[in-house]
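Friendly challenge for the regulars: who can give me the structure tokens for this chain first? No prize, just bragging rights.
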Amino acid sequence: MSDHAGDPATGTFVAHRNLLFTVAYEILGSAADAEDVLQETWLRWVKVELDQVRDQRAYLIRITTRQSLNRLRTLQRRKEAYVGPWLPEPLLTPPDTAEDVELAESVSMAMMLVLETLSPTERAVFVLREAFDVSYDEIAAAVGKSPAAVRQIAHRARRHVDARRPRTVVSPSERRAALEAFQRAVETSDLRGLLDVLAPDVVVVGDGGGVKQAALRPIVGAEKTVRMFFGSMRKVGGTLTTEATVINGNPALLFRLDGEIDGVAALRIEDARVTGIYYVRNPEKLSRIESETPLTLR
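First reply, four minutes later:
Bragging rights claimed.
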């Protein structure tokens, strides 16, 4: 990209880079693959005759979507061979991301898992329409369908997602309060305090990728969750510390073992209680957390 520094193609691409990354990430659920898609998008973009492009933003989104759909087929094969539950690669995001409720929901771990239940085309259509308000005509050009077909796909995907997405809107202050209570209970081994902040039907999904120990099936229920957390902590052969952070626009705890990242627990909060814990321990998915600054998504 540096070879083209200063030209219009570079300026346009850089101006929309965060947007394109978010499009690719929401379709793929993998930051590493989203970065590869951006590289592929760039290689195609610099060959385009810019004076022939009416809407450069839409054209870049179109390229990114097509490359994401191509990459998604490879990613799905990897998921089929994955050991245990698969969770999206967590993204470190600025604290103010949580203030944008719609953005925070669209990239949350809970929403990303809902998107996993859509077909590739449904997922792309839903992301482009609902998260980025792309026109049906532009989406049609990106996914190779007619505008009428895209409208039907969008309606079907929206109905599917609405049946599974969180029902309540949680304010940033409620999120912070629940995170602080959760962190305090974990740090002090306060069993009662942890039970109080967990919803009775809380669900824990762990992702160790076969490399780090994690439950091979979701854990359901507050008491089972408490036993899992405190049982795991008793087995730790070192000093475990926690750090409040923002992952995918939502509250999370970063766990360090003797100073090194051991895992990230992203929380889903409803009615002032934790209803979902998405605990990523696979080291391949945590490398960006340590090495990168928080990512502005748009």
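The longest strand covers residues 260-270. The chain has twelve helices and six strands. Your move, everyone else.
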